[in-house]
Amino acid sequence: MRTRISELLTHAKSGQGCELAGWVRSVRTSKEMAFISLNDGSNLAGIQIVADHKLANFADIARLGTGAALGVTGRLVESPASGQAWELAAEEIRIIGAADENYPLQKKRHSFEYLRSIAHLRPRSNTFGAVFRLRSRLAQAIHRFFNERGFLYVHTPIITASDCEGAGELFRVTTLDAASPPLVEGQPDFGQDFFGQRTGLTVSGQLEGELFSLAFSDIYTFGPTFRAENSNTARHASEFWMIEPEMAFADLSDDADLAEQFVKYLCRFALDECSEEMAFFDKHIENGLLERIRTVAEADFGRMDYSNAIDRLQRSGVSFAFPVEWGLDLQTEHERYLSEQVVGGPVFILNYPKAIKAFYMRQNADNRTVAAMDLLVPKVGEIIGGSQREERLELLELRMDELGIGKEPLWWYLDSRRWGSCPHAGFGLGFERLVMYLSGMENIRDVIPFPRTPRHAEF
Ligand code: 4AD
Ligand code: MG
């Protein structure tokens, strides 16, 4: 039976027989011996296979190319070489899938740009192996965090008729004939479309999440979201994953408390349970990463009002590319300045002007701000966006009228304010932004297996 390399090494015993399978990372040969570095994706280092020239197919083994798939039977022995405790003395090596010298992932340092162009193969590289192992483990840790706290996991729909964030970034879902749709008054008649109305891919599961929080008290969603936002930055993807908790009987301060515990939990998790990957990132991706994450896991996150943040930015003396003025949204350069220079760590910015935030946020008594929060972190900027929700029916309706948001299509959302309405709050954590933050990877395209960005959906 095949054993995964990571498992074999955790329970290693000298002389232990085993069967492995994996892909060749490199081969060094002499007349007498071949040394094969084999990796099956279960850990970073893989294992060194030592093949003696007495093996019947030694000639073929000596000619093996990087990328070939092998099955190996052998015995574990303590390795005389430095940097590894164990190696496998091969008794039999089966070549399962050959790879010739045209294999695009040769053993050398490739640029991330190049690796993006071979996204079908890059998971077999050290960096992407580490990124996607970390990503997988973090997803598990996220479920664990909420499960430990009694939150219900809810699957909100991917196809939706409502634009939660109101930013007009919905990808349309339709089965109408693109070339000649049925028309009413010169416009496509979505009444004749598959769902009998205009639908799109969800930008957020929040609205449905709120409905569940008003039944189960504490819930979270974790799923893909889609935004047809034409911004070609290193932090935006058109398809990304978001975690959205929602708590009934909770206000903005409870919301920030949960977000702080959540982020720290994930920092500690990465340090404790993904140590091999984190050490790799520290060495090869961002020097000082481990220290940075350790500090965050221990830190008290700052909390600062938006108005105060604007004041700090204006008094900074820094000439930013984008204007800083009360009423304008913060740009990444401002967010990074606030967390990196002003606070020196993660900081919540609270109570934004209502004009720049979504319709569902709770209006403050000052009549010009809403109970919104963004968590800003060094390097990445905004990693979390959330708010206390407007639970007062009249005020919510008034706000929708002001913004020209139709109340009729959201009748079900308004119903939740009609019966048993209560203060509630939640947030969204962008999963890729989290992986970037914890790995030090600087481009969102390099932390999602097959990135979707404007003009890119090939693999
Ligand atoms: O701030 P956003 O737009 O908030 C919401 O969608 C709310 N409905 C969340 C809630 O209160 N339940 O998005 C939340 C987070 C951002 O802070 C960011 O981390 C991530 O989602 N995000 C993106 N990540 C990658 N690519 C994009 N285009 C993203 N847009 C937002
Ligand atoms: Mg936001």
Characterization of the model:
The protein has 459 residues and is α+β, with helices and mostly antiparallel strands. The protein has 2 domains: 5-97, Nucleic acid-binding proteins (OB fold (Dihydrolipoamide Acetyltransferase, E2P)); 123-167 and 203-446, Bira Bifunctional Protein, Domain 2 (BirA Bifunctional Protein, domain 2, 2-Layer Sandwich). 30% of the residues lie in helices and 25% in strands. It contains 13 helices and 18 strands. A hairpin with a 3-residue loop joins β1 and β2. It is elongated, with a radius of gyration of 26 Å. The protein starts with a helix and ends in a 20-residue tail after the last helix. Bound molecules: 4-amino-1,4-dioxobutan-2-aminium adenosine-5'-monophosphate and magnesium ion. Residues 164-165, 204, 206, 227, 229, 236-237, 240, 242, 244, 382-387, 426-428, 430, 432-433, 444 line the site of 4-amino-1,4-dioxobutan-2-aminium adenosine-5'-monophosphate.
